Amino acid sequence: MPELAVPASQQAVIEDYLGTNARDRAEEKGIVVAAGFGVKLYVERGHLVLNDGIGRQRRVRRYSRATAKLRRVLVLGHSGFVTLEAMRWLVDVGAAFVQIDRDGQLVTCSVAEGTDLPALRRAQALAAEGEVGVEIAREVLAEKVAGQLAIAGELPVDEDARVKVAEAAASLTQASSVEGCLRAEASAALAYWDCWRSQELNFASRDRKLLPEHWLTFGHRHSPLTGSPRVAANPANAILNYLYSLVEVETTLACRIVGLDPGIGVWHRDRRARDSLALDLMESCRPAVDAYLLRLLRERTFRRADFAETRQGNCRILPPLARQLATTADTWREHVGPVVERAAQLMADGSTKLGDLPTPLTRSKRQDAWGERRGLRTTKRPTRAAVPKACPACGGGIGEGREYCDGCLRDRFNDLGESGRAAATATLAQLRQDGRDPAHGGDAGRRRGQKNATHQQAIRTWSSSHIRPDKAVFVKEIAPRLYELTPGDLGEATGLSEHYCSLIRLGKRVPHPRHWEALRQLTRQ
């Protein structure tokens, strides 16, 4: 199935909805994210075909077994279908399929690779009632509370809250039972989340007056809709729940890869259709997610279009922000890998049938052996998830190397006034005097050449199937109606520069006939 043809006037809207930059960065890491209504995942002529989006903002993507290098297919939503052939295709290439519902709840995940160790699962089932379970709980929860204590030091709260978290951390290391560990962790959580209540979110100034008051701060961790963290009522908690779901996915997959049963927990009770062990072991990764959220709230400017409120008051994340956040899955996999392997080894140590287990997640044993052979000491730290960039003025998406979007860049240039224009003119004159004219030669020349080559190819393609009409047709039928439109509107419809579009609008230029139909349609809207 070929990719859907999209009018040029709608391309900017589609790329904003789909989060093109975020999608490209995610797919470079082997993570494919699909969102919208009626998501379709099937195989056609040996290629995996993914159809997602909403209405006119649909997108069709095709992936080859040899070149795609997929590791995750992440579906955000609950409508659509996945064929059995598509699931087999993912297994063949070693990719996992994950579905997260619109409220951030993990629905299902499958792993293509795994280890079948019945003796390890038996040891896992016995661990919850013995000393191994206490040791795992103590290590995991101590790491969690230590991370919370470090984050509390960065939040603007009184010293009493930090002292309570520190006391809970000290008591947790002395706990001799799983129940004692949980009591200390719960005490730390009460003080820790109080530290977050006044943390503000940066929203675009033009959107702040449209938002409910409780959306502007982190607020309470427990939602007023459920009395628990689930079903968040504001953006900050909705983002946190979504990120925690990504961590749960990676922990579940990690458990299956090392041979553990993610459903048999240590302190989370057995519950139908719940991965209790994944919820246990992901606790140590929560502070890393919280630290990322804190950076996100302080560095990112959000907009009203990033979120939606249901009729019940539930706050949900919309594309492209959801796609951008999904790119952090790679980081969380690196965080949970050592924890899952450590828990599996502790369980294996309690069994007489198991010795040293392999480390398929971190490859630490292989790296250590290679380091000893070369006389080097290998230490690897998890990577730090990047905060997705956004325009600080409006919250819209921007590309790499950009600080403002095109619309806000014009406004900012106008706000600078004559002094800014004079400084820019002086800087440009100095660069030209030094022989470093940014508009000619070097990278600018290469981009101009590529752009011209693209235009010439488009002209040849059009000319092969069309007869060039008389310019008088454009002058009489189309040009008189263009003066009511802005150069930006003409640029979105044709892909031409705004400067050239302004000349078209003033009647000083006649564009190539291949653009006439797009401009004609624009005048009819």
Structural descriptors:
single chain; 525 residues; alpha/beta; Ribosomal Protein L15, Chain: K, domain 2; Four Helix Bundle (Hemerythrin (Met), subunit A); 3 domains; 4-stranded mixed sheet; 20 helices; globular; disordered N terminus
Describe what this molecule looks like in 3D.
- The protein is α/β, with parallel strands linked by helices and 525 residues long.
- It has 3 domains: 93 residues, Ribosomal Protein L15, Chain: K, domain 2; 257 residues, CRISPR-associated endonuclease Cas1, C-terminal domain (Four Helix Bundle (Hemerythrin (Met), subunit A)), CATH 1.20.120.920; 57 residues, no CATH class.
- The strands form 4 sheets. It has a 4-stranded mixed beta sheet with strand order 1-5-7-8, with helices on both faces. It has a 4-stranded mixed beta sheet with strand order 4-3-2-6.
- Strand 7 and strand 8 form a beta hairpin.
- Helix 5 packs antiparallel against helix 6, helix 9 runs antiparallel to helix 11 and helix 17 packs parallel to helix 20.
- The radius of gyration is 28 Å and the shape is globular.
In short:
The chain is of the alpha/beta class and 525 residues long. The chain has helices at residues 8-18, 20-28, 84-93, 118-127, 131-152, 159-173, 178-194, 205-208, 235-258, 276-281, 286-299, 321-326, 329-349, 364-374, 406-433, 442-463, 471-482, 487-494, 498-505, 516-524, and strands spanning 31-35, 39-44, 47-54, 57-63, 72-76, 80-82, 96-100, 106-110, 202-203, 301-302, 307-309, 315-317.
